[in-house]
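This is your field. Have a critical look at both lines of this record:
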Amino acid sequence: MTAKKSSLRDLAARSRPALLAAANAPGTNRLVELPVHLIHTGGLVDRLEVGEPELVALAESIKAAGQKVPILVRPHPERPGEYEIVTGRRRLAACRLAGLTVRAEIQDLDARALVLAQAIENIAREDLSYIERARLAARMVDEAGLTVQDVEVAFSCDKTDRSRYLKIGRAVPQDLLERIGKAAGVGRPRWEQLVARLETDPGAEGRARAALAAVNITDGTPSSDERFTLAFEAAGRPAQPKENADKGVPKGTGRPAGDDILLDGVERPVGRMRASRKGLELMLYADAREGFTDWLALHRNAVVGRLLEEYERERQAGAGADGEP
């Protein structure tokens, strides 16, 4: 990972002469202690969720050992004596939480250099999810006015990956993204499939929005990945004509007769599930994983038994949460 980060920094340095020139301008590269109330949001926010436990832990660490790495700010373009954050949002938030001043480096950066510097630092981190990267790429072009070539530089990607980032980052409405969250376990293939459903079915967006509105996410339950699944399944659930409502669909499920089984990191469906009044039929494709279907056939009783045990645990946990026996 270190080598990757270094290559990103090297690439950025070669491609951003304006940013390097600004860093050497008079009055820049000053390390100061600043009151946190003088520092304001700047550029683009890359995260869909802020982890409160992580901020608390970072605040305690800074209290105990001090702030080892300064944040980067620029003079606020409209408020003399105040600043905009460039990089180090979590460190700033942690210092604010701890009631401390923040150690900062001041650089005179224009708006484009600010956004590009943010993107390069943030993308080099391991914990940005795919959708956070895609949304950041789209906002760099659509809101900050950067070029698609700037996206390729910041993301260290080729034209194909850049096009994918921009398409996915633009296609999912912001309110859906905020309800879903960062979905750290969901990769590009499933986001592409969700986008395809939103683009081809006029009712898909409304169904996804309704599914997310029906759950309470204030306590993190269901998880962000599970919220993605709720939206994904709802978007792929076409409305049934009334005369066919009872054909091939168990009562109360509202699910279509057949659904692809999709796994992150796998381009094609690995199987298909078909529901009827009699039960649920599962088909796993033989080429999904060599030897897997043979193994599953051999251990089918044990596998189904474990699934039933897991179902009972979740059902009993849900009943307990509602105060029922």
